[in-house]
Design a protein that fits this description.
There is one protein chain. Strands 2-1-5-4-3-6-7 form a 7-stranded mixed sheet, with helices on one face. With 160 residues, the protein is α/β, with parallel strands linked by helices. The radius of gyration is 14 Å and the shape is globular. The protein has a single domain, classed as Glutaredoxin, CATH 3.40.30. The N and C termini lie far apart (34 Å). A hairpin with a 4-residue loop joins strand 1 and strand 2. One of its GO terms (cellular component) is cell envelope.
Length: 160
């Protein structure tokens, strides 16, 4: 599932993000279990910007983006910006171990099912990972992309 290097950022979204929710659409609420077994609802973050990162430990492009996502989290996480990782791992131990070992210190949730079998992938139109959304404080999609560079630029513009 690696992106070919000749695609521009725009081309990558045109090819891989075609079914993601569009800007301005209300982001559906969801409730899932966290990596530490607690229940998490996205609605608990209403009033904040939410970076919603769809990924899996078995995905090479997702693993490649981890250092940049950690940098974005460190730079922008605040009382106004929250990060949530949505994993498509089926092995709970592998998922939890990866999150811990890589010091991914934000909320992580999963259905512990294959991507195509999850309700959240269907609800959010995720056909490719990594896919990332930024949800605005009113619960509407601000950005849906497969390109982490766009996430950084959007967070930078919000932060100004």
């Amino acid at each position: 599932m690696a992106l070919t290097t000749h695609l521009s950022a725009q081309d990558a979204d045109e090819k891989y993000a075609t079914e993601l929710l569009k800007q301005g659409v209300a982001a559906p609420d969801f409730t899932l279990k966290t990596a530490d077994g607690k229940t998490f609802s996205m609605s608990s973050l209403r009033g904040k910007y939410i970076v919603l990162d769809f990924w899996a430990t078995w995905c090479p492009d997702c693993r490649k983006d981890v250092p940049e996502m950690k940098r974005l989290h460190q730079a922008y996480a605040s009382d106004k910006v929250a990060f949530v990782g949505v994993s498509f791992d089926t092995d709970a131990t592998a998922w939890r171990t990866f999150v811990t070992q890589n010091k991914m210190d934000w909320t992580h949730v999963s259905e512990l099912k294959k991507m195509k079998e999850t309700a959240i992938a269907k609800t959010y139109g995720v056909k490719w990972i990594p896919s990332v959304y930024i949800i605005d404080p009113d619960g509407k999609v601000l950005l849906g992309t497969v390109m982490i560079e766009k996430v950084g630029k959007t967070l930078e513009s919000i932060h100004e």
